[in-house]
Amino acid sequence: MSIAVNLLKASHVGVRDFREHLSGYLKKKAFFVITERGEPSNVVLPYKDMIELLDIVDELSDPATVEAVLEGSKAVKSGKKGVSAARFLKSAKASLK
Prior knowledge:
The chain has 6 helices and 3 strands. It is of the alpha+beta class. The chain folds into 2 domains: about 1-45, YefM-like fold (3-Layer(aba) Sandwich); about 60-95, no CATH class. Strands 1-2-3 form a 3-stranded mixed beta sheet. It is elongated, with a radius of gyration of 18 Å.
């Protein structure tokens, strides 16, 4: 979930400023929300975070993972104690290695 938190905390940079100082911003290896006329229009994120995001999307598109999430959701609704999504994804990632 660190990607979502980083995105929420990301600096907002005007598109002109970003264009004029592109190399400086990219050297920071941080999240940036690019704005046009004050409205968010694009996001720049570090390569490692993009890879992590793609891994999460791959995991969530796996039928076995979807089935496990649905089963867990039903168990929690029936009163059983659940496991956080972050802990589940961490254990799923570890099992793939």
